[in-house]
Amino acid sequence: MAGGKLKKDKPRANAKAAAAPYQGGISFHKSKGQHILKNPLLVDSIVQKSGIKTTDVILEIGPGTGNLTKKLLDAGKSVVAVELDPRMVLELQRRFQGTPYSHRLKVIQGDVLKTELPYFDICVANIPYQISSPLTFKLLKHQPPFRCAVIMFQREFAMRLVAQPGDNLYCRLSANTQLRARVSHLLKVGKNNFRPPPKVDSSVVRIEPRKPAPDVNLVREFDGLMRICFNRKNKTLGSIFRQKTILSVMEKNYKTLQALHQSQSDLSGNSNVGMDSLDFGDDGDDMGMDVDDSGDNEMELEDGNGGEVTEFKEKVLNVLKEGDFEEKRSSKLTQQEFLYLLSLFNKAGIHFS
């Protein structure tokens, strides 16, 4: 087996395949985000920190070969596992078939982002990191609301979720998530706890949806405002809201809503009125990546560029002055301050969805 000649004659592709990590006869693909937890003490710690009750229906996303699944079945009433890879689905079925666990495990093959999720009490998952943002907001929209989710994320994404005003990683993702849920960091996980090891460290985060959940229209408006405020989070709000592109889009939306009011249309039935340039209101994109603050490229709107636009600019700046927000920066504002700013804009007839 270790003979030099045999090793020399092997094709390069086979050598790579032989070196690929296996468990249960299955090779894992980094490109698909398949990093299986191999440390049993870590698996036990995640389950223990999840606070699972014996009556809980547990949702697991990306169960892989079932290392975490078995511990979840030990702790709860039943597990619903959503797995995209058909090889992993077969491995799970093979592993638990004919055991006392089999009738308490339901495996759904499919893309979790496109799957209608069943009822569950708690979600515990080691997910592919590339779906972190859309999955987080899919879960937060889920009805009926679940008790909590304990999820393994890439460390930087996790730290953005839990970041507070003034932290370097505080961003639109932080603000939007914390409007809908209480978020806490549970533990840091080194890359060597996985097979194959990812390139970065991970963290386990606990997400508890707020009850009652915030109004859907408030969530859309809040996200629209956050898209503007975190466009240049370290600049003053007065500077941000003087940008020509932002004022132009805001004014377009303002005039559209004014026209709807005048025609006595039901505004609640038209809550998807678009703000085209900045695409406000869509929370499914990657909110972890904020625009860099370097450069000073705001396009100031000159007062002489048309009376109507100048009048709207005045309206926007008056809102900032009324709440004493003109010199404040998004990177330092609390959720309550953002909500107060939103209420001032709404009082002036300015909306963000």
Produce a short descriptive summary.
The strands form 3 sheets. The chain has a 7-stranded mixed sheet with strand order 6-5-4-7-8-11-9, sandwiched between helices. Strands 1-2 form a two-stranded antiparallel sheet. Helix 3 (40-50) runs parallel beside helix 4 (67-75) and helix 8 (172-180) packs antiparallel against helix 9.
Structural description of this entry:
The chain is α/β, with parallel strands linked by helices. The chain contains 13 helices and 11 strands. It has helices spanning 4-9, 12-19, 40-50, 67-75, 86-96, 132-141, 155-162, 172-180, 216-229, 237-240, 244-262, 307-322, 335-347, and strands at 22-23, 26-27, 36-37, 57-61, 78-83, 105-109, 122-126, 148-154, 181-189, 194-195, 202-209. The strands form 3 sheets. A 7-stranded mixed β-sheet has the order 6-5-4-7-8-11-9, sandwiched between helices. α6 links the parallel β7 (122-126) and β8 (148-154). The longest helix has 19 residues, at 244-262. The protein is elongated, with a radius of gyration of 25 Å. The termini are far apart. Mean pLDDT is 83; it is low at 1-23 and 273-309.
Task: Give me some keywords for this one.
alpha/beta; 15% strand; 13 helices; two-stranded antiparallel sheet; seven-stranded mixed sheet; 353 residues; single chain
Radius of gyration: 25 Å
What fraction strand?
A: 15-25%
The total of beta strands comes to 11
Query: N-to-C SSE series?
Result: HHEEEHEHEHEEHEHHEEEHHHHH
Largest sheet data: 7 strands, mixed
Parts with pLDDT < 50 across at least 5 consecutive residues: 1-23, 273-309
Mean pLDDT: 83
- Decide which structural class fits the backbone: alpha/beta
Estimate the global geometry from the Cα principal axes. elongated
For the largest beta sheet, what order do the strands appear in spatially?
6-5-4-7-8-11-9
What is the share of helical residues? Answer: 25-40%
N→C terminal distance: 66 Å
DSSP summary: helix tally: 13
